[in-house]
Amino acid sequence: MNRRFLFLLGSSRADGNTELLARRAAEQLPGDVEQEWISLTEHPLPEFEDLRHDSDHVRPTQGAAALLLDATLAATDVVIASPLYWYSVSAPVKRYLDHWAGWLRTPGVDFKATMAGRTLWGVTALAHQELVVADPLIGTLRNSAAYLGMRFGGVLLGNGSKPGDVLRDTEALAHAKTFFAREAPLARFPYDTE
């Protein structure tokens, strides 16, 4: 399977620092790698309703849910580009991840088996000098990848609050040049010791 990167933009601001950093990293991908970019605010998912125990699941056939499910299943690499909002992912990204729970139970999708072995990456910009404050966001993505048996490429961190600030973060821009070139290891929960 040729590599296909799905970039999911989770900011409420177009061309924000997180998106700018993600685009810088994506510029380094080889020309034969397909890229699909979807703004989660332009294609909002409905509120997630947990129907695990009391409803039949049906594969979505239209709207944002169908678009995002199909794009996710077609991707070899999923890139969550979410600004750090209250020390975690943005609301649109959280809603997207919540929908994974429904897709796990959708007949004919076999979401967990399909996603196993694929790679989850993260890109985030934060307005804080201490990068450790992004640990909850990193944990959310790493643990989600581990649950599905995915690889986890880590999170590209940049600093910036006002639009364009991240373009002055020379360390982040340097890391962006090689971010997707690394071999991503199989994701593990923090308590896994093997």
TrEMBL record:
<dbReference type="InterPro" id="IPR005025">
    <property type="entry name" value="FMN_Rdtase-like_dom"/>
</dbReference>
<keyword id="KW-0288">FMN</keyword>
<feature type="domain" description="NADPH-dependent FMN reductase-like">
    <location>
        <begin position="5"/>
        <end position="101"/>
    </location>
</feature>
<keyword id="KW-0285">Flavoprotein</keyword>
<protein>
    <submittedName>
        <fullName>NAD(P)H-dependent oxidoreductase</fullName>
    </submittedName>
</protein>
<dbReference type="InterPro" id="IPR051796">
    <property type="entry name" value="ISF_SsuE-like"/>
</dbReference>
<dbReference type="InterPro" id="IPR029039">
    <property type="entry name" value="Flavoprotein-like_sf"/>
</dbReference>
<dbReference type="Pfam" id="PF03358">
    <property type="entry name" value="FMN_red"/>
</dbReference>
